[in-house]
Design goal:
Number of helices of chain B: 17
Oligomer: heterotrimer
Mean pLDDT of chain A: 83
CATH class of the largest domain in chain A: Alpha Beta
Number of strands of chain B: 9
Strand content of chain A: 15-25%
Strand content of chain B: 5-15%
Number of helices of chain A: 9
Largest sheet of chain A: 5 strands, parallel
Strand order of the largest sheet of chain B: 2-1-3-4-9
Helix content of chain B: 25-40%
Mean pLDDT of chain B: 77
Radius of gyration of chain B: 25 Å
Chains: A alpha/beta, B alpha/beta, C alpha/beta
Order of helices and strands of chain B: EHEHEHEHHHEEHHEHEHHHHHHHHE
Number of strands of chain A: 22
Low-confidence stretches of chain B: 1-5, 142-163, 305-321, 357-366, 431-448
Distance between the termini of chain B: 26 Å
Helix content of chain A: 10-25%
Structural class of chain B: alpha/beta
Largest sheet of chain B: 5 strands, mixed
CATH architecture of the largest domain in chain A: 3-Layer(bba) Sandwich
Radius of gyration of chain A: 23 Å
Chain lengths: ~425, ~450, ~575
């Protein structure tokens, strides 16, 4: 259930950090085994990155209904307390349990009170109250709570007066909480490194031009423009004829991300196939290093994509940038000859730079080895442990949850004969 | 919204709860303006919407019906929505045939994202319904009017010029003789006054009494006979009691049936529906003369074969379809349900149409013949073999075969033809995993 | 008694839907009670307790906001205020009032239409109440326990986890020794532990072992699973609440690839693994290793007849290349590949370590063009060049074929008995991607290589997860993927109405409808996913799923304006 800052009851509970699929499945598994859970999510809704996807490979089913029904189970379960807008600052241990230090961005409108009636919106002279999230969040997943657009609000307080239930408090501040927990499961997932992050590879031009999109930006753009006629570039509304998908951008690269993010080949293939379905005449090129499709049904999905007329090029473009004559220029070595060539596209989708979300103890300043310093009972699940797709994250979430339960049983001396590995390490 | 609003009655919106319902809920949540006639009916899957539901809605006076499902190919229930799509397409054709504009049925396959699309679709759908002429009180039919009309209206559609051609008789007698030599029983027609009756022939002495005769729907009789023997229970009532009693008493019943193509199709379809086994049955094919074909208005005089024979709609048949004013024709229906009794592929132990609960319920009009015949046509849509038994049985001479032919031609558009052992497009076996085949019908809703 | 509790949402819905007009649009015997805030327990209870007569059975419709807003809370508050009532929600806020033109004043025509719409929504909710089933009795947790089929790493992990969770577990395997394919391996990628150490960390204590015992058949009877187990010549039936399939896969053998029958020196990765384990254990000398190894990837994989990537062969090859280099650094190892499939952090690290150790990786576009030189034994491998020039020659003493895992016929057969889907290769299919370990039948879970080739590490993870899901199922009696807010009963057939025509059997998207002996059609509740397709295709209403599609009454209520006594 969704709870506010006054949730603190004194249960023994497991802290699950991150409300993506891995975290939600970990929480649901724990709840099904009668363990209280505190599920902490930094965003305004559960569902994580998967909710931002339109379709999921290899079945091409909607991501939304499946993920959303999982989220709803989390909201509905009496054993799961969901704290939104909350992040973990760090963990400390006194040998017995773990103290988790949380910071909670207190929303200006209390979700437990708001009726979503719109009285505040009608009262606001600046149009600062919205039903939607002012940021580009995936709306259907948000709890029905009014939101304040900070950019427009001048704090006049008329909304607070108009609110029939007193849900608005414009003076609300961030709060820090310290919560005792028995175990911690990190399921913080992935993020796309932004410019300035050392994991971000600047040569691929993401963030420099509106027509160069990261995979998740492209997903959002594709979702927005769905079903609304011919595709136009995000920059100037020029119609799109050629699209490039660039794989392993910044990944498998010692300078940025030294690993393969495991999901991007299929993800790009999915996006490319969807584009192709929408506009069969599009010229779509996909630049890859190794086209990895090791999962169930994935090889076939790839082959179908190739058969649909996608250009698959085994080459790693070295430079992606806005071209002078318009469009996005790519420089790459021709796969057959190895000669460097340039090609202009209308749109480039840069894929592969999926970084694991940093865990609190490995934030800058810490020694960078999260596990040696962590107390027993800290587990990782999903992408933040090892790059994983939806299915992998679901499996890991449940597996780590059960490991936590077994650890509690052994710790309590309850009839558990096995000796489960407490913390499957990720290194 | 517009002053003409009052003309529009309810618009029933059936929405799949997995996907479309999210979009619908989001549209409401974002306070998008929507027509007030909308009545939302959530369903577990678009595949669970039957044509009955929609006919019920129209029969109760709905101005329009919209069906919202997941994207074709994105169904959570292994593509069940594709079958629904096929079923509803057939229904849309039937609505058109019946004189109800097909634009009153709106099919749309979308996802949870598409709140805006949903809202604009609903607005344009209701605007479109506004444009259509007001819905006639289509399904309401005063009983007395139906009774007042007589059976006299034949319009030359009934059997004419019964053929008693000597060559045809010789042909069928030769076939029958060969079958008798093999120790089989022959079921064929024998003259009875001006008409013909089916008879069992077991000896060659009786052969002079055997004739080809004009068309006589034998499939139901043969089907009953086979089923009763297989089950070992003779039904108390039914057509041709004496003949069935005799056949029931026989030790073996290796039957050779002298029949026409339509009867053979019907029997094969019955076997497909697992009602009978054709193991001991052979057909003595009677070709239909041109006169006979005309008399039946038959589209499928060919004998069933292994190669799939798709229906070639007769030239000009569409105009014929158009010319039939079904509400007028069906107003003569006295609801004796003989069409159903005679139908060889109506195999249900108890027909749901006997009750028509939706139509006789509460304040709704009493069971209307139009709804009855539409529902029945769709119940047997992909099993009807257009044998014309219903039409022959109708005391009012309603050209029911035409109705079934029009449904069959909608199915022919889907590449299906009944009685040929083909898999029906309305209920495909889906347990094999196929590569996902996407069909993106995002560009607004498709009017069926 | 029929009661409609109308939530005015602090006066917001009432502007579009005046209480009086709404009451007039409803049937006279429906009492309309308005409250300010139905989702607020205290205010709701206070205003209702005065107005509702005690001790009467009432049907209550909450006319409030949508279930995705606070409708659920409104129902919960009503339930606490009126514990005996049967409740249903009618969404008249998002579903009606808010859909009015937001631009300005509502026009009178529209206002009356909106009231009619709200009244229809409320009437529809009452019809749903009328055909609602009686409350389902709560699920009693099973006590028969779980059967784990297959004692490989996945099965062992599942069984030992279930023991830890306190459930009775039976572990069956055809072979007399647990361990499965992993029992044949030495070191494991990516962490290079010994396979036996990993297996030893999955203790057998507390598990009812049925080793050397074949599972002949699995079937569902009376809501539980019955397994026929054969040990020697004896068959025995045992009953279980849930099943975990961990039947694994089998390696494809190189067979006649590259002329392996005539030439010596063509082996599989498994054979190389055995040799390396022996050398590592000191049972053999490192001189037994050849001087030049060429590994060829994707032998019999990603081909026309096996169009899939088995995922574990590239890491296995890299692992073995590293082991060779560790034991005998002067050995040349070349890995010929179409692409190296080394996804993720740990595998990329392993790949990099192999390159650092001097393993060569050579890319080719097609495997068909690779030729092998040598009469009786392998001498060299010839790779076609890209630009039509000279072939590239790799000297080799031993050619190691990396072959995929393929599904076993036995696991596909078991899956089919249970009504699970298998893909055309024979792997058992779960609900990819969001519920990958859940089979199509209730209470059946999948883990390990029977669903897709998995490393030992993945198999153990999947085994643990499957155990958690099975425990959850035994406890709650429903599959996580269902997450049905209303736990409806499965579809069923009214036998006296059924003609056994088979329409539902063909149409059921989940294979739950089937013919039984005597030609009767039945619906297997464990396979039914409550989609209602059977009811939609049945012409005589023999197949039924209560509450699936709207009842005729609900359709009628949706359309016809209310009339006196039309609903009584």
């Amino acid at each position: 259930m969704l709870c506010d800052r006054n949730f603190l009851d004194d249960h023994d509970r497991v802290l699950v950090v991150g409300g993506g699929v891995a975290g939600m499945h970990a929480a649901l598994t724990l709840a099904a085994l009668d363990v209280s859970v505190l599920l902490v999510e930094k965003n305004a809704h559960l569902g994580g990155n998967v909710l931002r996807l339109d379709k999921v490979y290899p079945t091409d089913h909607c991501a939304f209904c499946q993920t959303w029904s999982t989220a709803r189970q989390c909201y509905d379960s009496p054993l799961i307390q969901v704290l939104l807008h909350t992040e973990v600052l760090g963990l400390s241990t006194d040998g017995e349990g773990i103290q988790a230090r949380l910071t909670m961005r207190c929303p200006l409108i209390d979700p437990s009170l708001c009726l979503f009636c719109g009285a505040c919106r009608n009262a606001c002279p600046h149009g600062a109250l919205l039903e939607r999230d002012p940021a580009r969040t995936w709306d259907p997943a948000l709890p029905p709570v009014m939101r304040v657009d900070q950019a427009r609000c001048n704090g006049c307080g008329q909304c607070a007066q108009a609110c029939p239930v007193g849900a608005i408090n414009l003076e609300a501040k961030d709060e820090e909480l310290i919560v005792p927990v028995t175990d911690v499961i990190y399921a913080t997932g992935f993020e796309e490194p932004q410019p300035g992050d050392p994991r971000h590879a600047p040569e691929f031009g993401t963030g420099s031009h509106p027509d160069i999109l990261t995979a998740m930006e492209f997903e959002a753009w594709q979702n927005e423009g769905r079903g609304l006629g011919p595709l136009c570039t995000p920059s100037g509304g020029k119609s799109v004829r050629k699209v490039a998908f660039v794989q392993c951008a910044g990944a498998r690269d010692r300078r940025h991300l030294p690993y393969c993010a495991a999901v991007c080949c299929m993800h790009a293939m999915k996006q490319a196939r969807w584009l192709k379905r929408r506009q069969p005449a599009l010229d779509i090129a996909l630049f890859y290093t190794d086209l990895r499709a090791p999962g169930a049904g994935q090889e076939r999905y790839m082959r179908a994509g190739a058969a649909e007329g996608l250009r698959l090029l085994r080459s790693r473009p070295g430079l992606v940038m806005a071209a002078e004559q318009g469009g996005v220029g790519l420089r790459y070595a021709q796969p057959e000859t190895g000669r460097p060539v340039g090609e202009i596209f209308d749109l480039a989708v840069i894929n592969g730079g999926l970084g694991q979300c940093p865990l609190p103890s490995s934030r800058p300043g810490a020694d960078g080895t999260p596990h040696s310093a962590s107390p027993v009972g800290v587990l990782k699940a999903g992408f933040c442990d090892e790059p994983a797709d939806v299915a992998g994250s679901v499996i890991q979430g449940a597996a780590r949850a059960v490991a936590a339960v077994l650890r509690r049983h052994t710790a309590a001396g309850g009839g558990c004969s096995s000796n489960p590995q407490s913390a499957p390490s990720a290194d | 919204m517009t002053p003409t609003l009052s003309r529009l009655k309810a618009i029933c919106v059936f929405a799949c709860r997995w996907c479309s319902l999210h979009g619908v809920e989001r549209a409401g949540r974002e306070r998008m303006a929507l027509p007030p006639q909308i009545r939302l009916l959530p369903v577990p899957c678009a595949g669970s919407i039957s044509a009955d539901n929609i006919i019920q809605a129209f029969a109760n006076g709905a101005s329009g019906v919209a069906v919202l499902g997941c994207h074709l190919g994105g169904c959570r229930h292994n593509d069940a929505n594709r079958d629904a799509h096929a079923r509803l397409a057939v229904l849309a054709d039937l609505l058109e045939t019946m004189g109800l504009d097909r634009r009153r049925l709106c099919l749309s396959w979308g996802t949870a994202h598409e709140a805006e699309q949903y809202a604009s679709l609903m607005r344009s759908f209701s605007a479109q319904l506004e444009q259509l002429p007001p819905l006639p009180d289509f399904f309401r039919m005063p009983k007395n009017q139906a009774v007042a009309l007589t059976a006299a209206v034949q319009q030359g559609l009934g059997p004419e010029n019964p053929v008693d051609d000597a060559t045809e008789n010789a042909h069928v007698r030769a076939l029958a003789a060969a079958a008798l030599d093999k120790g089989r029983l022959v079921l064929a027609l024998t003259p009875a006054g001006d008409d013909f009756l089916p008879e069992l022939f077991s000896t060659k002495e009786d052969l002079p009494h055997l004739v080809a005769g004009s068309k006589y729907a034998l499939a139901k009789l043969v089907g009953c006979l086979l089923r009763e023997r297989a089950q070992g229970v003779l039904q108390e009532f039914g057509p041709h009691q004496g003949l069935r009693e005799r056949a029931f008493g026989l030790r073996t019943c290796k039957l050779s049936v002298a029949c026409r193509a339509c009867d053979a199709r019907a029997l094969r379809q019955m076997a497909d529906l697992r009602q009978i086994s054709l193991q001991d049955v052979e057909f003595l094919p009677l070709p239909c003369s041109l006169n006979q074909q005309r008399a039946c208005a038959c589209h499928r005089p060919q004998w069933p074969s292994d190669t799939s024979l798709l229906i070639q709609p007769e030239k000009g048949s569409e105009e014929v379809q158009k010319r039939i004013d079904w509400p007028e024709q069906l107003s003569r229906c006295v609801q004796c349900h003989r069409c159903r009794t005679a139908c060889p592929v109506c195999v249900c132990p108890a027909c749901s149409l006997d009750q028509m609960p939706a139509l006789s319920y509460g304040s709704a009009p009493a069971a209307s013949p139009l709804a009855y015949h539409m529902t029945r046509a769709l119940h047997v849509a992909d099993v009807c073999v257009q044998c014309g038994a219903c039409q022959d049985a109708c005391p009012q001479g309603i050209p029911l075969l035409r109705l079934h032919q029009s449904v069959a031609s909608s199915l022919a558009n889907l590449g299906y033809c009944s009685g040929e052992g083909m898999a029906s497009p309305l209920r495909r076996q889906r347990l094999k995993l196929a590569a996902p085949q996407w069909q993106d019908s995002l560009k607004g809703g498709t009017s069926a | 008694m029929k009661l409609c509790v109308y939530c005015t949402c602090m006066g917001h819905t009432i502007r579009t839907l005046p209480e009086k007009a709404l009451a007039a649009a409803l049937e006279p015997h429906v009492r309309l009670v308005s409250v300010d805030r139905l989702c607020h327990a205290a205010s709701c209870a206070a205003s209702l307790s005065e107005r509702v007569p005690k001790g009467q059975t009432v049907q209550v419709v909450a006319a409030a906001c949508s279930g995705s807003a606070r409708g659920g809370m409104a129902l919960a508050c009503l339930r606490s205020a009126l514990p005996m009532a049967r409740l249903e929600l009618a969404d008249i806020r998002e579903g009606c009032a808010w859909q009015a033109n937001t631009g300005g004043q509502t026009q009178p025509e529209e206002a009356s239409e909106r009231v009619a719409q709200a009244a229809a929504l409320i009437r529809m909710a009452f019809t749903r109440l009328e055909c609602q089933e009686p409350e389902l009795r709560p699920h009693a947790p099973g006590e028969l326990g779980v059967l784990v089929v297959g004692a490989g790493p996945a099965g062992l992990a599942a069984a030992s986890t279930l023991v830890g969770l306190g459930l009775p577990v039976t572990l069956a395997d055809r072979r007399p020794k647990p361990g499965g394919l992993a029992g044949l391996l030495g070191k494991l990628f990516p962490r290079m532990e010994q396979a036996e150490d990993v297996l030893a960390s999955l203790p057998l204590a507390g598990i009812t072992l049925r080793l050397g015992c074949e599972v002949i058949s699995l079937r569902r009877e009376d809501g539980v699973y019955v397994a026929s187990l054969r040990r020697g010549k004896e068959d025995a039936d045992e009953r279980f609440d849930a099943l975990i399939l961990a039947t694994g896969a089998q390696p494809v053998l190189p067979g006649t690839a590259f002329g392996a029958k005539q030439r010596k020196g063509i082996i599989s990765q498994m054979e190389l693994d055995t040799l390396l384990s022996a050398v590592e254990a000191g049972r053999k000398d490192s001189d037994q290793l050849a001087a030049q190894y060429v590994f060829v990837q994707c032998v019999h994989a990603r081909s026309a007849d096996k169009p899939y990537c088995s995922a574990i062969c590239c890491p296995t090859a890299v692992k073995n290349a590293l082991r060779v280099k560790n034991l005998r650094p002067q050995t040349d190892v070349t890995v010929v590949n179409r692409q190296m499939v080394m996804p993720g952090l740990a595998l990329e690290e392993l790949y990099a370590a192999a390159m650092r150790a001097g393993v060569r990786f050579v890319h080719v576009e097609r495997l068909d063009d690779i030729r092998v030189q040598g009469e009786d034994s392998v001498e060299a491998v010839l790779l076609p060049s890209q630009e039509g020039g000279e072939d590239r020659r790799l000297d080799a003493d031993v050619l190691v074929c990396s072959t995929p895992l393929q599904p076993t016929a036995a696991s596909a057969a078991l899956a089919r008995q249970l009504g699970l889907r298998t893909d055309d290769l024979g792997f058992v299919v779960g609900h990819e991607p969001s519920h990958p370990l859940e089979g199509d039948a209730e209470g059946v879970f999948l883990c390990g290589s029977c669903r897709w080739p998995a490393s030992v590490e993945q198999a153990v993870t999947q085994g643990r997860a499957a155990a958690a899901l099975a425990a959850r199922f035994v406890r709650l009696g429903r599959m996580p993927q269902d997450e049905i807010p209303d736990t409806r009963a499965a579809a069923h057939i009214e036998r006296e109405l059924c003609s056994a025509c088979g329409r539902c059997v063909q149409a059921c998207p989940h294979g739950a409808c089937g013919f039984h002996a005597e030609g009767e059609v039945r619906i297997e509740a464990a396979l039914c996913r409550r989609c209602g397709v059977c009811a939609a295709v049945c012409p005589c209403e023999a197949a039924r799923l209560p509450l699936a599609s709207p009842s005729p009454r609900e359709i009628l209520a949706a359309i016809r304006p209310s009339r006196q006594r039309s609903l009584s």
